[in-house]
Amino acid sequence: MSQSNGRDCTKTVAWAQRGPALTPYRVEGTILSANVSETAHPFRPSADRSIESLELDLPDPSLLMRLALAYRSSMVLFAAAELDIFTAIAGGATTLPALAQHCGVATEPLRLLLEACVAEGLLVSTADSFGNTSVADAFLVRGRPAFIAHGLKYAEDLYQPWGHLVDLLRSGRPVIEPESILGDDKARTRAFVLAMHERARGMSAVLPHGVDFTGRRRLLDVGGGPGTYSIALVQQTPGLRSTVLDLPGVLEITREIVEQHGCADRVALMPGNYLMSSFGSGYDAVLLSGMMHRETADTCRRLLRKAFDALEPGGLVVVSDVFFESDKKNTPPFAIYFALNMMLTSKEGSAHAKTEMVRWATEAGFHGVELRNLPPPNPHTLVVGTKP
What we know:
Blueprint: E1 2-4, E2 7-15, E3 25-35, E4 50-51, H1 62-68, H2 70-82, H3 85-90, H4 96-103, H5 107-119, E5 123-125, E6 130-132, H6 134-139, H7 149-157, H8 159-162, H9 165-171, H10 186-210, E7 218-222, H11 228-236, E8 241-246, H12 248-260, E9 267-271, E10 283-289, H13 297-310, E11 311-321, H14 333-345, H15 354-363, E12 367-373, E13 381-386
Helix pairs in contact: 2-5, 2-7, 7-10, 10-11, 10-12, 13-15
């Protein structure tokens, strides 16, 4: 019991389960010398009557705690990936001493990191060793076909911009210079392009199933970044050649990727800014993938008209992006976070609605414009139309 200005106060906190959706807190207090009025607010003391007890039911705050601390799980993943722990385990370094020596880190912090990876479902453990789970072995071991550590590094680089979300809200402007990942900063540009390459590999495997490019001869890949889609399409479509239009600093890394895949004879690079550069003419397919979300509605309309003009009659336009379901722009949740991310990192970035893109493509002159959803977990949708 504590003493405060002559008043004795005691307080107890108890949990009470009131139903599956509500686990309230009950706070009970006894204030021996305070008085309140019968008609007064129950938490506003007055001088009329004593309070024998107070009860306040509140919902379970677990959601708030989970959201507030979610970054810890992300940082566990990023740290383990940066240390290449999963590759080390796949190579035989499965004990704590072996991993500490391999990674050159302190033993006790590493032990806790490994246990955190177990808790997150990235590792399994026995009495004296650790092993990769199937998802870690498939995606986090260097040299595996589906290795995605570059993509994770890009996600880690976004941690700082997201920490300034309130600055975006107050200023309405991105919190980083967009040009830093589009050529001005070579290291960040390289990390960005390689991350986009890894993310695009999964989609490039299913893109041909969403659109049949059979018989097409000339493809223009607008804002094609790493060239991943062009590489996949020319490999899977006999007779197809592609031209990737993007900024010079981006295409420096694209050239490496194209050459690594042995496609330099079928994938050409066109340095330029798709906003100002001519698209040329004589194409029978134009791909605008993963770049419309950086642009305003008016710019998207202009790019669709440029694509229309670059195509031969019967030519195909394909817009691939993350979209909101409707003009309300409130679903799906992935698109909401995606739009915020684009606002944080680009001057005009957001996400458009499927309904908008269909209207704009139709207004540009394309016929038979339709939506084609790619299979989950891919979040992209294709908007496909034909030049009459």
